Amino acid sequence: MEKQNPKTAIVLGAYGLIGSACLSALKQEGYRVIGVGRSRSAGLRCDPKIGWLERDISKVPVDTWKDDLKGADIVVNASGALQSGAKDSLSGIHETAVARLVSALEGTATLLIQISAAGVSDSATTEFFRSKMRGDRMIMQSNLAWIILRPTLVLSIQAYGGTALLRASAAFPMIGVSVFPDAPFQTVFVEDVAQAVVQAANGEIPTGTVADLTEEETWSFQTVNKMVRGWLGFKPWMFTLSVPAPLLRLTGLCADALGWLGWRPPLRSTALKVLADGIKGDTKIWANAGGLKCRSLVETLDAIPATTQERWFARLYLLLPIAIATLSVFWIISGLVGLAENQKAQVLLTDRGLSPVFATLSVFGGSIVDIMLGLAVLVRPWARKACYGMVVVSIAYFAAGTLLTPDIWGDPLGPFVKVLPGIMLASFVASILEDR
């Protein structure tokens, strides 16, 4: 049962991995909660019973923040980005937005709780940590009431980012992969992060506290991987292979390129650098501030049910990029072949009584549509619509072909029959293209 609390808490990045957990915990504590995020529809899927503000946090001006945050007792900044891309700007989210938040809250009694990251520093190897540090410093140098919380590798019931990567890595069939064997890792359960936010909001943590949130134990990535595999209920790998450094770098470059197409793959170059450096925190400051102890990796896994859908997700997460690439290659090649063999394709239609003009338009138009759909599915904002387009176009080809050239059903290579798996693959991809 929710408590009664007259205070208002506004959560930025509220449908993200950490933000949604903070939202739920504050709501259970009885706060009047308002979520802020880039997509109102994504927010309503997260929690349709609270108020939502649709804002691109990196672009909100100070005056708008002043209006939005008026009357707020608590502001939780759980927004963040791992790497700049088509959707995200590190400086915009970690610095510009923070500077404007600080300006908007100057002169108020509002408590600002900043969710940062363990390991931030000016000399960090990634711009993610450096930009986070610059944002943290703006808050620390302000006159606001503030608390900064820095979690290590966050694990959650939700599968996104690092939690999705761990599940997928643990689901590799038969053969395990070994990366960064000497890098140390510490984890924290997202519910413990949310509880820390509740403690801070309730005044149980002194303002001006900067504390890591982490378990006490330290692990290797390979150990974490094996533990997650066991938690998923999969048998141990038959053997493990080390991934060569050049292959990891190539993976990072490919993932970076996808980032500029709107995707957020978990193995971008920033993530690989973070993994190579390791992720560690210090429990002392949080404990001395009165914070509750964070659960260990073992306790976290015990608290999360490993159900059938977990195993489905882990396997499908590995298959999704392969399925998208298959669709793209299939449709692009189909279009290119149509253009290259346009004379044969036109003869096929004119021999069945269709006019030369109609045959020409059909062949060239169909080929261009095929290529456009094959390219569009690679761009994240267009991917689902491209899949639906593939289904519609395939059905149209199927129907028109059956009506105009029914004899092709007797072709020993079965070109019409092969349309059906293409429809199913596009439908499959469209149905699981969900980030949040």
From TrEMBL:
Keyword set for this entry?
A: Membrane, Transmembrane, Transmembrane helix
Query: Does this entry carry the keyword Phosphoprotein?
Result: no
**Ranges annotated as spanning the membrane:** 316-337, 357-379, 386-404, 416-433
Q: Where is the NAD(P)-binding domain?
A: 13-158
Q: Which Gene3D superfamilies match?
A: NAD(P)-binding Rossmann-like Domain
For the keyword Protein transport, the answer is no
Enumerate the PANTHER family for this protein.
NADH DEHYDROGENASE [UBIQUINONE] 1 ALPHA SUBCOMPLEX SUBUNIT 9, MITOCHONDRIAL, NADH-UBIQUINONE OXIDOREDUCTASE 39 KDA SUBUNIT-RELATED
Name of the protein: SDR family oxidoreductase
- Organism of this sequence: Pseudohalocynthiibacter aestuariivivens
**Lineage of this protein's species?**
Bacteria, Pseudomonadati, Pseudomonadota, Alphaproteobacteria, Rhodobacterales
